[in-house]
Protein backbone atom coordinates (compact mmCIF):
# COMPACT_ATOMS: atom_id res chain seq x y z
CA UNK A 1 0.00 0.00 0.00
CA UNK A 2 1.37 3.42 -0.88
CA UNK A 3 2.31 5.95 1.80
CA UNK A 4 -0.34 8.36 0.47
CA UNK A 5 -3.08 5.76 0.75
CA UNK A 6 -1.88 4.73 4.20
CA UNK A 7 -1.91 8.36 5.31
CA UNK A 8 -5.46 8.97 4.20
CA UNK A 9 -6.66 5.70 5.63
CA UNK A 10 -5.39 7.14 8.90
CA UNK A 11 -7.79 10.03 8.36
CA UNK A 12 -10.58 7.72 7.44
CA UNK A 13 -8.88 5.16 9.70
CA UNK A 14 -8.03 1.71 8.54
CA UNK A 15 -11.42 0.26 9.35
CA UNK A 16 -13.29 2.08 6.60
CA UNK A 17 -15.02 -0.32 4.33
CA UNK A 18 -13.29 -0.54 0.98
CA UNK A 19 -16.39 -0.02 -1.10
CA UNK A 20 -16.21 0.65 -4.79
CA UNK A 21 -15.31 4.20 -5.67
CA UNK A 22 -17.81 6.30 -7.56
CA UNK A 23 -17.43 6.38 -11.29
CA UNK A 24 -17.03 9.65 -13.15
CA UNK A 25 -20.73 9.45 -14.04
CA UNK A 26 -21.83 9.54 -10.39
CA UNK A 27 -23.11 12.67 -8.69
CA UNK A 28 -19.90 13.47 -6.80
CA UNK A 29 -18.66 17.02 -7.28
CA UNK A 30 -15.29 18.47 -6.37
CA UNK A 31 -15.41 20.82 -3.40
CA UNK A 32 -13.54 23.87 -4.66
CA UNK A 33 -13.94 26.42 -1.88
CA UNK A 34 -13.31 26.57 1.83
CA UNK A 35 -16.90 27.78 2.31
CA UNK A 36 -18.30 24.67 0.63
CA UNK A 37 -15.93 22.44 2.63
CA UNK A 38 -16.99 24.12 5.87
CA UNK A 39 -20.69 23.84 5.01
CA UNK A 40 -20.58 20.19 3.97
CA UNK A 41 -17.82 18.52 6.01
CA UNK A 42 -16.59 20.60 8.96
CA UNK A 43 -18.31 19.88 12.26
CA UNK A 44 -20.13 16.84 10.88
CA UNK A 45 -19.72 13.34 12.27
CA UNK A 46 -17.72 11.32 9.75
CA UNK A 47 -18.22 7.59 10.02
CA UNK A 48 -17.36 4.29 8.49
CA UNK A 49 -17.27 0.99 10.25
CA UNK A 50 -16.18 1.48 13.87
CA UNK A 51 -14.46 4.79 13.19
CA UNK A 52 -15.84 8.21 14.07
CA UNK A 53 -14.10 11.49 13.19
CA UNK A 54 -14.91 15.18 13.35
CA UNK A 55 -13.03 17.81 11.38
CA UNK A 56 -13.45 20.62 13.89
CA UNK A 57 -14.02 24.31 13.01
CA UNK A 58 -10.98 25.26 15.14
CA UNK A 59 -8.59 23.41 12.79
CA UNK A 60 -8.33 20.22 14.83
CA UNK A 61 -9.35 16.67 13.93
CA UNK A 62 -10.69 14.44 16.70
CA UNK A 63 -12.02 10.94 16.78
CA UNK A 64 -11.60 7.33 17.64
CA UNK A 65 -10.83 4.12 15.81
CA UNK A 66 -10.06 0.55 16.77
CA UNK A 67 -6.36 1.36 16.36
CA UNK A 68 -6.54 4.25 18.86
CA UNK A 69 -7.40 7.86 19.45
CA UNK A 70 -7.28 10.15 16.40
CA UNK A 71 -5.86 13.67 16.76
CA UNK A 72 -4.71 16.03 14.08
CA UNK A 73 -4.69 19.45 12.50
CA UNK A 74 -6.20 20.62 9.23
CA UNK A 75 -6.54 23.72 7.09
CA UNK A 76 -7.79 24.71 3.65
CA UNK A 77 -5.03 25.71 1.21
CA UNK A 78 -5.63 26.81 -2.36
CA UNK A 79 -8.54 24.45 -2.99
CA UNK A 80 -7.27 21.50 -0.96
CA UNK A 81 -8.02 19.91 2.41
CA UNK A 82 -4.62 19.64 4.10
CA UNK A 83 -4.16 17.53 7.22
CA UNK A 84 -1.61 15.88 9.48
CA UNK A 85 -2.65 13.13 11.91
CA UNK A 86 -1.72 10.86 14.75
CA UNK A 87 -3.67 7.61 15.07
CA UNK A 88 -2.83 5.75 18.22
CA UNK A 89 0.98 5.87 18.26
CA UNK A 90 1.46 6.37 14.51
CA UNK A 91 2.06 9.78 12.92
CA UNK A 92 0.96 10.62 9.38
CA UNK A 93 2.56 13.69 7.80
CA UNK A 94 0.70 16.50 6.12
CA UNK A 95 -1.01 15.79 2.82
CA UNK A 96 -3.23 18.14 0.80
CA UNK A 97 -6.17 16.37 -0.80
CA UNK A 98 -8.93 17.02 -3.31
CA UNK A 99 -12.40 16.42 -1.82
CA UNK A 100 -15.43 15.03 -3.70
CA UNK A 101 -18.91 15.16 -2.14
CA UNK A 102 -22.39 14.03 -3.18
CA UNK A 103 -24.51 15.47 -0.37
CA UNK A 104 -24.06 12.66 2.12
CA UNK A 105 -20.83 10.85 1.35
CA UNK A 106 -17.38 11.97 0.34
CA UNK A 107 -13.96 10.75 -0.59
CA UNK A 108 -10.62 12.42 -1.15
CA UNK A 109 -7.76 12.00 -3.57
CA UNK A 110 -4.30 12.34 -2.02
CA UNK A 111 -1.40 14.46 -3.27
CA UNK A 112 -3.54 17.32 -4.57
CA UNK A 113 -5.70 15.00 -6.62
CA UNK A 114 -2.78 13.05 -8.12
CA UNK A 115 -2.60 10.22 -5.60
CA UNK A 116 -4.80 7.40 -4.44
CA UNK A 117 -8.52 7.68 -3.78
CA UNK A 118 -9.61 7.24 -0.20
CA UNK A 119 -12.34 4.96 1.02
CA UNK A 120 -15.85 6.42 1.03
CA UNK A 121 -17.29 7.77 4.26
CA UNK A 122 -20.46 9.51 5.39
CA UNK A 123 -20.87 13.02 6.76
CA UNK A 124 -23.85 13.56 9.05
Q: Order of SSEs, N→C?
A: HEHEEEEEEEHE
E-strand count? 9
Mean pLDDT, nearest integer? 83
The number of helical runs is: 3
Strand order of the main beta sheet, please?
A: 2-3-4-5-6-7-8-9
> Can you tell me the residue ranges where pLDDT is under 50 for at least 5 consecutive residues?
4-8, 13-25
State which percent range the strand residues make up.
Answer: over 45%
Global Rg: 13 Å
Shape field: globular
Biggest sheet overview: 8 strands, antiparallel, barrel
Helical amount: 10-25%
Structural class: alpha+beta
Give the CA-CA distance, first to last residue. 29 Å
Topology (SSEs and partners):
Layout: H1 3-12, E1 29-31, H2 34-40, E2 45-48, E3 51-55, E4 60-65, E5 68-77, E6 80-87, E7 90-101, E8 105-109, H3 110-113, E9 121-123
Antiparallel strand pairs: 1-7, 2-3, 2-9, 3-4, 4-5, 5-6, 6-7, 7-8, 8-9
Amino acid sequence: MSIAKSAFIAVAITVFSMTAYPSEADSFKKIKSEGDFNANIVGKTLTSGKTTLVIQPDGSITGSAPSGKVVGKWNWQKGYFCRALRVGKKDFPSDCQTVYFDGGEFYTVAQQGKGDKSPMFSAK
